[in-house]
Design brief:
This protein is mainly alpha-helical. It has two domains: 19-123, DNA polymerase, domain 1 (Orthogonal Bundle); 135-317, Intergrase catalytic core (hpI Integrase, Chain A, Orthogonal Bundle), CATH 1.10.443.10. It contains 15 helices and five strands. The chain has helices spanning 19-32, 35-55, 64-76, 81-98, 109-123, 135-143, 150-165, 169-174, 218-229, 253-266, 276-289, 294-301, 306-310, 314-317, 323-326; strands spanning 180-181, 187-192, 204-209, 238-240, 246-250. A three-stranded antiparallel sheet has the order 1-2-3. Strands 4-5 form a two-stranded antiparallel sheet. A hairpin with a 5-residue loop joins strand 1 and strand 2 (187-192). Helix 1 runs antiparallel to helix 2 (35-55), helix 3 (64-76) packs parallel to helix 5 (109-123) and helix 6 (135-143) packs antiparallel against helix 7 (150-165). The longest helix has 21 residues, at 35-55.
Length: 329
């Protein structure tokens, strides 16, 4: 299981580099490269160092978790795969030339897996969508995050609420305590103020019912996390460092992506195949497989067309017939 100190992205305990040192490293990288790559090296290094400074991380030497979080942030911001790979090469070169005695984070299995996952996602095209993260996967992720610390409780609540609500990551990070209605004993109601398909801000409500199993009840997990974190107002899902200090700021979309990938790895899953949108896909797939009609599912997901929901019907069609039995096998 990975160790981090914040949750909007992975972290190290070292302080960020000084501006002077960042510039010196950039010049060294520029001088070591051929003329056609000098500008790219310096620009790439400045971007990575700037991201680390903004997130309170050390750029050199960087932890593997820091680089992985940076790549997730680049992917979330829509950077081209070629640019992401070049940034990895720049970070690798900086460590090789400026910190030769430190472990090169770009050679870690975590960074390689995240980079491979980003490449696979882009190569497979947008049409296939995210791999569904089904209830069995989430149960494994919840069981893989043991402990009663604030971070463990936050991670369990994050995974369970993502699946139960089918919220997009932008909708999840926008939630505030004021958006939670606990007045109905059947569960909690989330007020989604704005979404990808609701730019006018009409909003919708998402009801999450209490689960049958206390260990995987999203309502219980969410309330337990908020109480442990002492959150009574402001953003619901926030960064938590390794000392259980809770940030005043809400998590970013990239932070959510990293958190679920980390939970997936702890559960023995391939983190490159896990994304926040996969929970939304898994929600729809599981409910359709259970026989729920598209309109009922759309009440939760906020999809505007039945066609979008039916993209996930493939899971419902699996093993519908006993083919081997019918063939006498």
């Amino acid at each position: 299981m990975l160790t981090t100190t914040t949750d909007n992205a992975p972290a190290t305990t070292d302080a960020p580099l000084s501006a002077e040192l960042v510039t010196r490293i950039g010049r060294a990288l520029e001088a070591s490269a051929s003329s056609n790559t000098r500008r790219a090296y310096r620009s790439d290094w400045a971007h990575f160092a700037g991201w680390c400074e903004a997130e309170g991380r050390c750029a050199l030497p960087a932890a593997a978790e820091t680089v992985a979080g940076y790549l997730v942030a680049l992917e979330a911001d829509g950077f081209a795969v070629s640019t992401i790979r070049r940034r990895v090469a720049t970070i690798s070169k900086a460590h090789g030339s400026q910190a030769p005695d430190a472990a090169n984070p770009t050679r870690s299995a975590l960074v390689a897996g995240v980079l491979r996952g980003i490449g696979n996602t882009r190569a497979e095209g947008q049409g296939k969508g995210a791999a569904p993260i089904l209830p069995a996967h989430v149960r494994a992720m919840v069981e893989g995050a043991p402990g009663e610390g604030v971070k463990a409780k936050r991670d369990r609540a994050l995974a369970l609420v993502l699946l139960a609500s089918a919220l997009r990551r932008s909708e999840l990070v926008a939630l505030t305590v004021a958006d939670l209605d606990w007045s109905d004993p059947r569960g909690v109601v989330l007020a989604v103020r704005r979404s990808k398909t609701d730019q006018t801000g009409q909003g919708r409500e998402v009801s999450i019912t209490r689960g049958r199993d206390a260990a995987t009840c999203p309502v219980r997990a969410l309330r337990g996390y908020l109480e442990a974190a002492g959150i009574k107002a402001g953003p619901v899902f926030r960064g938590v460092d390794r000392h259980s200090n809770v940030s005043d700021r809400g998590m970013t979309g990239a932070g959510v992506a990293y958190a679920v990938k980390r939970a997936a790895e702890a559960a023995g899953m391939d983190p490159s195949q896990v994304s926040p949108h996969g929970f939304r896909a898994g929600h729809v797939s599981a409910r359709r497989a259970a026989g729920e009609d598209a309109a009922t599912v759309m009440d939760t997901t906020g999809h505007t067309t039945v066609r979008m929901v039916r993209r996930y019907d493939r899971a419902a069609r699996r093993f519908r017939a006993d083919v081997s039995g019918a063939l006498g096998l």
